[in-house]
From TrEMBL:
Every Amidohydrolase-related domain range: 49-441
GO cellular component terms attached to this protein's record: cytosol
Cofactor: Zn(2+)
Gene behind this protein: hydA
Protein family according to the UniProt entry: Belongs to the metallo-dependent hydrolases superfamily. Hydantoinase/dihydropyrimidinase family.
Classification via CDD domains: D-HYD (cd01314)
Classification via NCBIfam families: D-hydantoinase, PRK13404.1
Positions of the UniProt region annotated as Disordered: 443-465
GO molecular function: dihydropyrimidinase activity; metal ion binding
PTM comment, free text: Carbamylation allows a single lysine to coordinate two divalent metal cations.
Enzyme class: hydrolase
Listed EC numbers: 3.5.2.2
Biased composition (Basic and acidic residues): 454-465
Name assigned to this protein: D-hydantoinase
C-alpha cells in the first residue's frame, strides 16, 4: 500500500512506546507504524522526534473581558500561534456576554471560529449563571450535544458562584456525565486583601500577587474538592500554582476521590517578583493565580514527576501591553485591580516544558506526551481520535528538533499580543513541523497552508487516566 505521506527517520513517541519507525499516513489518519513504508510524499525526519500534536486544553480566545477590553487573539492569530508552537488541537472557553444565554454564546463562538482555525478546536463552557433555564435546559442540552466539560469560577465579580451554586452545577455534571473544571481562589478573601492594599496605597502590579496569596488558593482548592465529594462528581482543578494547593489534591486522592489537576508554564518559570518589574512592566505578568516564589517551582515539579498533575496547559489569555484595550486599561496604572488578568503562552508551552522537563532529565518523552496531549484528549472526550500516535488516530504529529537552543523572542512568535513573558528565556528543543490530519500547518517556525482546522465533536470524559 502506498500512503499519502510517510514520515521516516524519526524517533516516534507512540501510544505503544517510543521506537524508531516510519509513520504511514492515509486520508489524514495514521494508517501504519512500521518500516520501509512507501508514500507519495516522504518527510525525512532524521534526527527529529515525532510527538503527538500538542493539545492545549486551557486557552482563552476572543473572550469578553469587560467594557473596552479586548483579547489580543482571535481564532486566526490564536490558532496560528498554537500551530507554530506544536499544537494541533486547542480547547478555548465559551463565556456568555452579559445578557447572552449559554446556547447563544456557543453559537457565537462557533461562528467566530468557523473557517479561521489552523488547529482543530473544541469548546469548554463557562457557567456563570444558575437560573432554571441555564441549569434545567441549556447546560444539559449542550452537554448532550458534546460540550462535555465546563468551568466554574470561585473568584471574579460577575463570574464567581456561591458554594450552593457550584453544587447545583455539579449536580447537572453528575446527571449528564460532564467534567467540572474549577478556578479555585477565594473571592471574599481577595476582596478583603485588595481593599486593604488600596487603602494602604499598595496599588502597583506587584500587589496583584500579594492580594492573592497561597492560602486564598489552598482554601478554595480544598473547598472545591469537598463540594465535588458532596455532589459525587470527579473534578479538575485548573492552573494549580503552588505546593499547598497540590497537597490538597494529593490528600483528596489518598481518600479515594477522583480529582484531576492542571498546571502551567508560569508556575515553574515565573515569580511574583516579575510583577514588581520597573515601571508598569509588571503588568505583563499579571495572571491568576499569580506566579509565586521560586520555592514553589520544585513542589510543582514534584507534582508533575509524581503524576499529581495530569495536564500541562498554557492558560493562554493574551492581552496587549501597550494598549488601553489591554494591560494599560483605564485605571490600571492607579490600581492593579484594573489590569486585565492573563498572559499569552499557547506558542511557548511545549518548548518550555520540553526544555525544562525532558532536556533537564525530569520528564520522559512518554510522560511529556501524556501531559501535553494524551490526557487532555482522554479527559475531554477526544480520545482515541486525538492525543496519541497510533493506527486509526488522526495524523496529528509534531516533529521536534531536540537539539536547537535559542532564546524565546516576541519577534519570532505569532500570537496577537505585543510581548511574551518569556522574552530572552533560553530553551533547548523546538517544534519544526506541525502536522494536522496529515497536512503541514507549520514548517520551520512559520504557519503554512490555509486554515484547515475543524470543530471537533466530543464524547464523555474518560476519568480512568
Ligand atoms: N483564569 C484563567 O483561567 N485564565 C485567565 C484568567 C483567570 O483568572
Ligand atoms: Zn481560571
Ligand atoms: Zn484560563
Ligand atoms: Zn513566522
Amino acid at each position: 500500500m502506498t500512503h499519502d505521506t510517510v514520515i521516516t527517520g524519526a524517533r516516534v513517541v507512540a501510544a505503544s512506546g517510543t521506537t524508531m519507525c516510519d509513520i504511514g499516513i492515509t486520508q489524514g489518519q495514521i494508517a501504519t507504524l512500521g518500516s520501509a513504508l512507501t508514500g507519495t510524499e516522504v518527510i525525512d525526519a532524521t534526527g527529529l522526534i515525532a510527538l503527538p500534536g500538542g493539545i492545549d486544553s486551557h486557552v482563552h480566545i476572543s473572550q469578553p473581558s469587560g467594557p473596552g477590553i479586548e483579547m489580543a487573539d482571535d481564532f486566526i492569530s490564536g490558532t496560528r500561534a498554537a500551530a507554530c508552537g506544536g499544537n494541533t488541537t486547542i480547547l478555548p472557553f465559551c463565556l456568555p456576554e452579559d445578557g447572552q444565554t449559554l446556547r447563544e454564546a456557543v453559537a457565537a463562538y462557533r461562528k467566530k471560529a468557523e473557517g479561521n482555525c489552523m488547529t482543530d478546536v473544541a469548546f469548554h463552557l463557562i457557567v456563570k449563571q444558575t437560573d432554571p433555564v441555564t441549569l434545567g435546559q441549556d447546560l444539559p442540552a449542550l452537554i448532550r450535544a458534546g460540550y462535555t466539560s465546563f468551568k466554574v469560577f470561585m473568584t471574579y465579580a460577575g463570574l464567581a458562584l456561591s458554594d450552593r451554586q457550584i453544587l447545583d452545577v455539579m449536580a447537572v455534571a453528575k446527571e449528564q456525565n460532564a467534567m467540572v473544571m474549577v478556578h479555585a481562589e477565594n473571592e471574599d478573601a481577595i476582596e478583603f486583601l485588595r481593599d486593604r492594599a488600596e487603602r494602604e496605597g499598595e496599588t502597583g502590579p506587584y500587589h496583584h500577587a500579594t492580594t492573592r496569596p497561597i492560602p486564598v488558593e489552598r482554601e478554595a482548592t480544598h473547598r472545591a474538592i469537598s463540594l465535588a465529594e458532596i455532589a459525587g462528581v470527579p473534578l479538575t482543578i485548573v492552573h494549580v500554582s503552588n505546593g499547598e494547593a497540590t497537597e490538597e489534591i494529593v490528600r483528596a486522592r489518598a481518600r479515594g476521590l477522583t480529582v484531576f489537576a492542571e498546571t502551567c508554564p508560569q508556575y515553574i518559570t515565573l515569580t511574583a517578583s516579575d510583577l514588581d518589574r520597573d515601571g508598569f512592566d509588571g503588568a505583563k505578568y499579571v495572571c491568576s493565580p499569580p506566579p509565586r516564589t521560586a520555592d514553589e517551582w520544585p513542589k510543582i515539579w514534584a507534582g508533575i514527576e509524581q503524576g499529581t498533575f495530569d495536564l500541562f496547559s498554557s492558560d493562554h489569555c493574551p492581552f496587549r501591553f501597550n494598549d488601553t484595550a489591554g494591560k494599560d486599561a483605564p485605571g490600571a496604572r492607579t490600581s492593579f485591580r484594573n489590569i486585565p488578568n492573563g498572559i499569552p503562552g499557547v506558542e511557548t508551552r511545549l518548548p518550555i516544558l520540553f526544555s525544562e522537563g525532558v532536556v533537564a532529565g525530569r520528564l520522559s518523552l512518554e510522560r511529556f506526551a501524556a501531559i501535553t496531549a494524551t490526557n487532555h484528549a482522554r479527559l475531554y472526550g477526544l480520545y482515541p481520535r486525538k492525543g496519541a500516535i497510533m493506527v486509526g488516530a488522526d495524523a496529528d504529529i509534531t516533529l521536534w528538533d531536540p537539539t536547537v537552543t535559542k532564546p524565546i523572542r516576541q519577534h519570532d512568535l505569532h500570537h496577537g499580543s505585543d510581548y511574551t513573558p518569556w522574552e530572552g528565556f533560553e530553551v533547548t528543543g523546538w517544534p519544526v513541523r506541525t502536522i494536522l490530519r496529515g497536512k503541514s500547518v507549520m514548517q520551520d517556525g512559520h504557519p503554512v497552508g490555509p486554515p484547515m482546522g475543524e470543530h471537533l465533536e466530543r464524547g464523555a470524559p474518560d476519568v480512568q487516566l
